[in-house]
Structures are given as structure tokens and as C-alpha cells.
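Worked example 4.2. Below are the chains of a multi-component assembly; read each line carefully before continuing.
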Amino acid sequence: MDRTLIKDLRSVIGQTIKLQGWLQTLRDQKKIQFLILRDPTGLAQVAHWKPNDEVLAELIAKMGAETALTITGKVIDNPIVKLNGLEIQLESLEVDNMAEIPLPFDPFAETLPTIDYRLDWRYMDLRRSVNALLFQVQTSVEMAMREYWVKNKFIEVHSPKLMGTPSESGAELFSLDYFERKAYLAQSPQFYKQMAMAAGFERIFEIGPVFRADPSFTSRHMTEFTGVDMEISWINSHEDVMAFEERWLQYIYTRVKELHGDAIKKQFGVDLVIPEVPFPRIPMREAVEILKSRGYALPADKKGDIDPGGEREIAAYVKEKFNHDFVFLTDWPISVRPFYHMRIPEDQTLTRSFDLIACGLEITTGAQREHRVEMLQKQALEKGLHLEPIQFYLDFFRYGCPSHGGFGLGLSRLMMAMLNLNNIREVVYIFRGPTRLNP
RNA sequence: GGGGGCGUGGUGUAGUGGCUAACAUGCGGCCCUGUCAAGGCCGAGAUCGCGGGUUCGAUACCCGUCGCUCCCGCCA
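Applying the procedure described above to all two chains together yields the following C-alpha cells:
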């Protein structure tokens, strides 16, 4: 017998069907047992008249909540039943896997344990329907990203995560033994996506793991996360990159709203707004002035940078003034940008770079890259870098590399912004942080 | 790395310088002709994170330590 999904029960009234799922609750009375069974599509009431099978009744009585079950029974239309006016009269029951009693915690209780405890028992936590939806949405997000890229003739690449040399600074790298020498975990695919531009691929993307050895204890940092990166050639400035990203995001939101808009509204209470293009753009110098005029005190040592509180304040300003959840902060000073960001010709203290803030959260950094090798060398030296370790990278720009730029986006951060969740641990499948390597 | 907060039955919380540390939920038992967030009665379950100090007396106050958490730094 094929499995029937709970959402389809109304179409098989009168038939004997098979259901598979988890025991949500058991109400065991004198003569009758009610089993509420949960599958990924909903809940259904299964009734067992105990005198029909006393042995089975005893087995059922011992089952703990969350036991995995396969049952067969006849679907009855019964308006008295509050759960969809349906019930299944139990005919047979097979325990696939008994749930031990007690559970570490009840995922369906009104109050949940703290996040740290739930992460210890992540598979139980993931049984909550909000989490199933969350990862369905994430699947659609990635699908939509790819749909848009493929329509626009992008090539997907997978760059190595084991590196022989530290790429950028070195401080936040994980190192490990690699046969007779040291290797490092990639903290960004930056160099390799630029290499694809030197290879003439013109438009590429990568979705893959990124490692950062930062001891960051915040609700938005992880030591391993999924980076969404892309790079395009023959651009005139970072404006071309932003113009691509905003339309790409608009497409993603459109697809997610089509596929999950109602469910998101119901489960997260979020009315997904498809962002209008163009997104507001604010040069950093202007952003600093806006913050001053709103009485937001930036730390003195920031030198043209903005702290997270400032980003939230700018987001509030943008929401008030443009009614928009996204804002590009552009033209960052060279002091806070890496050596490979291209400088603005008219003002060499600024870079052709941007961050994208979504609902006050930094989700993207992007830029036009410096593709002229002599400029790149000069800028690397100014940043105090040694050229030898990055020579392989500098060589990309010696034999005909087009102008190019791109961005990196944090997948989980996008999910936080989209679903209005304030802790990245809630959004990522398995969290990795400075003090968490399990499960 | 710096700062703030928290740590009480399995879980979530309350609480007070002094009798047997409270409540919810969960768990066990009994009762209830069909419940439906089921209900009723009974019961088990906490050396109040750990170490030290103040005090006649500490779960409560102080110090240290560990863990968690949030913020800053850093970033996606």
C-alpha cells in the first residue's frame, strides 16, 4: 500500500490507507485511544477502540511522544473531530522506532529551551514545523539564485577550500596539518573567483563553505558558513555589480513569495515584501553625515567606517525616507577595505566598493576589483602585504584580464533578514562557532 | 580580545539572609463511553553551576572559576 499524506486525507474518505509519521500526542482513555499523528504535511487523529485489540492497546499505551509510526486505517468523515473533521479508524500499527521517555525536550511545548540546549538536540529542534519551512524556503532561495544566474549565462564553479598560503590577512585563518606541511581553510573564494575572470569565464558564481577563525560571540557570526559569491567581467564600476545584485535579489524574493508567501505569513508572521529596484544607495561620507544629523554618535576611531548600531540607524533612516528594507552603502574609504578593491579615480582615498544592508544587517560586501597588476602591487605594498605569497594571484592580471567585480553574500544572514529572525543559530542547519563543534 | 546579563527538579520560570524551595509543563499511578491545548485525584523528581568568603545562619550578599547568552571589535 502506498503512503498517503495527511494533507490528502479528505480525498480518500471511506478508504483504508497507510500513514507514516510521528506520534504528536496520545490521549489514552478507558475504552478508546486517540493518537495524533504528524507527518510533514499536517496532523491527523487516529482512533483505536481498545476492546478490538487489547494487545495493541497495551503497546500504544507505552509509546512515547515522537515515536515513529506506520499505521493503516479507514478514513472517516466525522464533523465532531476538531482536527479537520476527519479521523482514521486504526486497523494496524507498526512501530518504526520507539521514542524513549522522557524526551530531552518537547519540540512542541509552549516554551522552548534555550538555543544552546536545543542545538545539543538539534534533530529534535528541527522537527518543529517552522524549521521545516525555513529549510524549504532556503532551498527555494538557492534554486531562485541559480535560476537567475543560469538565465544570465553564468558558470558555476567550486573552488578549493584547502589553501597552501594564507590569502588575505592571515589572522582569521584556520590552519591544519597537510602531510609534511601546513594548509589553511579558505576564508573566502575571492582569489579563485577572480581567477575565473582571468580565465575568460566572464560571469561565475559559487555557493560553498567559508571558514573564519574569528572568536566572535554574536548572534550573526559563525566560524563556518555558506558563502554565496559571484563575479562578473567587463564592468564600468561597482554600480554594475549593485545593479545586478538588486535585480537578482528581487527575483529571489519574487520566487520565494510565489512558493511560500502564505506559509511564511502564517508561520513567521512576515509579509514578504518584494524589494523595488533600484535599492537606495548612500555613499559612506553621506551616511556619516546622516548619522550625525540624527544624533547617532559614531566611535571616534571609526575613520569613515560605521558600526553595527550605525548600520541599524541608517536602515531605520532608509525605511522612513524610502520605505525600503535594503540599502547599499557605497564608496568606502581605502583604510577599511582590502588592497584589491579598485580606487575611485577622482578620489584616491575611496574605493569602488559597497556593502548591502538588509533590515539593518550587513549581508553583502562587494566591489570592482583592481585588475591592473602594477596598481594592485602598489596597493598591496601600501597595505603592508608581501608580494611573494600572493604572486600566483597577481599573475592572474598579467595576460589579459578584463575589468571585473562581484560580491559575497552570507546565505544565513539573508535568511535572517528575509524571515525576520534575530539569531543566526536558529537559521543555519548546524551551527559552528568558537565553542561549538557538535553535533 | 573587551564589556553587560544569566546559571534553581527533565524543560521553562518564580522566589526569599532563617520552618518541609514554589509554579507550569513533562514523567509515573489511578479515575473518566470519544477525547481533541482533554479533564480530575495522587505521586516521584532540585546537594538552587562549582570553589572559597562574610554571617549564628547563604539558593539569596562578596570574590574567584566554569558554562551559556547578548553587545562591541571583526565580518558575510
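Take a moment to check your reading of the output against the notes. The mean pLDDT of chain A is 93. The first helix of chain A runs from residue 54 to 62.
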